[in-house]
Amino acid sequence: MALRFFIGVLGGSFVPCQVWTTGFFDKNVVGTANAFTGGLGNAGGGITYFLMPAIFDSLVSRQGLSAHVAWRVTFIVPFILITAVAVAMLICCPDTPTGKWSERHLHAQQNLAAHGVTGDVVDLPGNFADSKSSPGSESPSYGSTHGKLEYDATGKVSTVADHEAQIGEQQMLDTARGEVVVKPTFKEAIRVTFSPQTLVTAGAYFCSFGGELAINSILGSYYLKNFPTLGQTGTGNWAAMFGLLNVAFRPLGGIISDLIYPHTGVWGKKMLIHGLAVITGAFLIAIGLIDSHDSHTMFGLIAGMAFFLEAGNGANYSLVPHVHPSANGMMISSSSFMCSMLIAVLGIISGCTGAAGNLGGIVFAIIFRYNGKNYGKVFWIIGVMTIAINLSLSWIRPIPKGQIGGR
Fold first, then answer.
1. What is the pTM of this model?
2. Per residue, what are the HEC states of the chain?
3. Most confident of 89-98, 151-160, 179-188, 388-397
């Protein structure tokens, strides 16, 4: 129990990882970035199918350890890998593209000043002092450490202003206010958590990632039931392919989303999510109704379903950064539902979306459990639920009306 608890906590690192990636990339490419990081994370499940049993078998056959001891020793390998990666990240990786997290506001302030922004006040996260510049001052006041930052009204465009900027000063300030991640009040957190836009990303991820988790857990058993001649090792290897396909299919969802974004805007990203989900649902229904005992047919249907399901996961995290961007620590995924909800306190939008995905995994796993070995029936049930949920969410605007930033 203790080991499973800490594995769940480790899985929760997926949430801050996606928030961190979102902060490093522009919205034109953030879908690709999030999809690649998420895809590699999901693919780890497939790699584990191959790697851990191989290590275990080696310890038993070559080192002479008993099975009772070997499975425990096997965990030393992921411990070494995880610790090495964690230490390397702490030493080598910056908090944000502009340096320390505590100083993230300075870059936005400097950019606004470079655009010749005049006479308005920008609220920034954290405790910054009210600091006002003297009238006519040519440079913005950087303030101390407790309040707001104010830009002086020069009435002139700085010589270093960006001549490509075609929006007004107030729009620039509004955009900065909307894009900088802030610590929400409890009231703001509740409003964001239960907004229709959060429901869209959470509902879609409930179906896609939830379905992936549940299917991953039973796919080997399903193959063994329909293809007993393959044996446990053979069916396990084929089941592992479902997770490994994340290396290509999840990033592809983010790439496609980013490609259509300049032409369709945020609505295009949202419709891509629902479109992929509906096709995924159709594949799930086909798999369940056919319940094929021909390996070529079954593996082909599973691969086709994996393409749309996993691409949907990637497309979802292309939309997430656009929704309530100043709260974009609040919407992502983890390996544990409870860990996701705990992390959601720190990052609402990312946490809510990811928690919904893990909740979906729990719900679908319960359905599998109460249907015994009738795996095909559960496949088409999940397919119907996926189509129904996504169609019911398709009418909701991708971002709140009047939202500042995230477009």
1. 0.72
2. CHHHHHHHHHHCCHHHHHHHHHHHCCCCCHHHHHHHHHHHHHHHHHHHHHHHHHHHHHHHHCCCCCHHHHHHHHCHHHHHHHHHHHHHHHHHCCCECCECHHHHHHHHHHHHHHCCCCCEEECCCCCCCCECCCCCCCCCCCCCCCCCEEECCCCCCCCCCCCCCCCCHHHHHHHHHHHCCCCCCHHHHHHHHCCHHHHHHHHHHHHHHHHHHHHHHHHHHHHHHHCHHHHHHHHHHHHHHHHHCHHHHHHHHHHHHHHHHHHHHHHHHHHHHHHHHHHHHHHHHHHHHHCCCCHHHHHHHHHHHHHHHHHHHHHHHHHHHHCCHHHCCCECCCCCHHHHHHHHCCCHHHHHHHHHHHHHHHHHHHHHHCCCCCHHHHHHHHHHHHHHHHHHHCCCCCCCCCCCCCC
3. 388-397
